[in-house]
């Protein structure tokens, strides 16, 4: 979709959302995530391509007739209506009698854990309560597809986690089909069965999130999913050669220049004398994350250097300047092609 002389918001994009599943659309601001939702909902019309629901082409079908409901980052409640009447709105539009619509509204308020809130004015709610009402209102419409456009991003961490738990509970009870837009890979991991990674209007990779974490198709995917370690080197006969040494890979990769990517959660910090250590280096940075920590270790060998990030376990502690060993589990090693020069890695990978 684009105007004349304007780069398309999406190009070459294709995605299937199985019935009863939750698929997350991940990507930075401006990547085309919300455009996917707007095209699906019928709020925008594509200049090419189509949207299908259960095999039927939705071209020309009005948004209100598509059987979809959307929850936005802002709840968009009607401030002059009570909580109950906000939730009953979809039924009232469909001609359901007021009493029946209000009774159903109370049922959905119970599903989002807002029993007893029906008489309150919408303007008297907290942010988290407003989003629960918005979710109840969307579910009360009994949509074939529930569209969520970063609905929890404005909430604080505790409320966001509560909404994640609530949505997981609703999925178990109602089995809705959900298309979720988010820029937070941790949120996608908590809520979705699979994810599609977008950047610049292009689909970079799609599949189960665990596969995308462990086997990114490119440096862009790895970085968008929080990957930190990138080590430039060369693959020869299934072995990646770099300042980390010769590391056997878990599967066959083409020979040539390639970047080794390792999830920091998979790397283990050990004493330097550990015979199972795959590399030995010096801790150059330590960041605390509650009971855990994140360390950056610099390894120098054969005239080159590389840095590897590792997550410390609860109670594990190391100081800057300390020499440590690193275990790099063979099954967690992965390589990706060297991208163009503007996106290529340094020997040490990205730093935050």
TrEMBL record:
Tagged with keyword Transport: yes
Keyword Zinc: no
InterPro entries: AAA+_ATPase (IPR003593), ABC_SmlMolc_Importer (IPR050093), ABC_transporter-like_ATP-bd (IPR003439), P-loop_NTPase (IPR027417)
One GO MF term: ATP binding
Database matches in SUPFAM superfamilies: P-loop containing nucleoside triphosphate hydrolases (SSF52540)
Keywords: ATP-binding, Nucleotide-binding, Transport
Origin superkingdom: Bacteria
Segment forming the signal sequence: none
Residue span, ABC transporter domain: 1-225
Transmembrane segments: none
Protein name stated in the entry: Putative spermidine/putrescine transport system ATP-binding protein
Native organism: Blastococcus xanthinilyticus
Lineage of the species this protein comes from: Bacteria, Bacillati, Actinomycetota, Actinomycetes, Geodermatophilales
């Amino acid at each position: 979709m684009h105007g004349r002389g304007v780069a398309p918001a999406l190009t070459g994009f294709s995605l299937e959302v199985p019935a009863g599943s939750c698929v997350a659309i991940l990507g930075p601001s401006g990547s085309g995530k919300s455009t996917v939702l707007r095209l699906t909902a019928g709020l925008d019309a594509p200049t090419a391509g189509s949207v299908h629901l259960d095999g039927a082409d939705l071209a020309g079908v009005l948004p209100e007739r598509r059987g979809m409901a959307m929850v936005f980052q802002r709840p968009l409640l009607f401030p002059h209506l009570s909580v109950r009447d906000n939730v009953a709105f979809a039924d009232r539009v469909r001609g359901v009698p007021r009493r029946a619509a209000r009774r159903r509204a109370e049922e959905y308020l119970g599903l989002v854990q807002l029993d007893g809130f029906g008489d309150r004015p919408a303007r008297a709610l907290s942010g988290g309560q407003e989003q629960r009402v918005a979710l109840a209102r969307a579910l009360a419409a009994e949509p074939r597809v529930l569209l969520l456009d970063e609905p929890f991003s404005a909430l604080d961490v505790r409320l966001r986690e509560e909404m994640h738990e609530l949505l997981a509970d609703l999925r178990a009870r109602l089995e809705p089909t959900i298309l979720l837009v988010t820029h937070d890979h941790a949120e996608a991991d908590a809520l979705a069965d699979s994810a599609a990674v977008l950047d610049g209007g292009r689909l970079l990779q799609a599949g189960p999130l665990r596969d995308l974490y462990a086997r990114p198709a490119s440096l862009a995917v790895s970085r968008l999913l929080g990957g930190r370690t990138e080590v430039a080197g060369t693959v020869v006969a299934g072995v990646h050669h770099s300042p980390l040494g010769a590391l056997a890979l878990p599967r066959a990769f083409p020979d040539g220049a390639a970047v080794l990517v390792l999830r920091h959660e998979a790397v283990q910090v050990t004493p330097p004398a550990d015979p199972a250590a795959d590399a030995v280096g010096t801790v150059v940075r330590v960041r605390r994350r509650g009971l855990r920590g994140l360390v950056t270790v610099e390894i120098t060998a054969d005239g080159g250097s590389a840095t590897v990030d590792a997550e410390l376990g609860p109670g594990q502690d190391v100081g800057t300047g300390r020499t440590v060993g690193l275990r790099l589990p063979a099954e967690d090693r992965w390589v990706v092609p060297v991208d163009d020069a503007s996106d290529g890695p340094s020997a040490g990978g990205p730093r935050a």
